[in-house]
Amino acid sequence: VQLQASGGGLVQAGDSLRLSCAASGFTFGSYVMGWYRQAPGKERELVAIISIGGTTYYGHSMKGRFTISRDNAKNTVYLQMNSLKPEDTAVYYCAADILLYSVQRGSPGYWGQGTLVTVSS
Prior knowledge:
Number of strands: 11
Largest sheet: 7 strands, mixed
Radius of gyration: 13 Å
Number of helices: 1
Shape: globular
């Protein structure tokens, strides 16, 4: 199983960025996918989740700015981030599990390696 996150980088406040997470080694369409992030000195935080059926869930501070989507044909989950703020600076990790509950509680079966997003003011 592999989750390969990409798309991070250095941007300015107000910019947009799209992260991708390419999955392999499991039946992507049967898994709940999510994004978490971890800022320096802080705990890992839920960003967004997308269920098998496409239902989405977002962390509090991301609603209205971030959009999670999935392309089952490409085995890829995306995170579109708009109106980025300096406080969005973090390493972003993708996650996968068969159970929604496992992803929601931050205990998915699989984690990606993370991609760094840095937002300058």
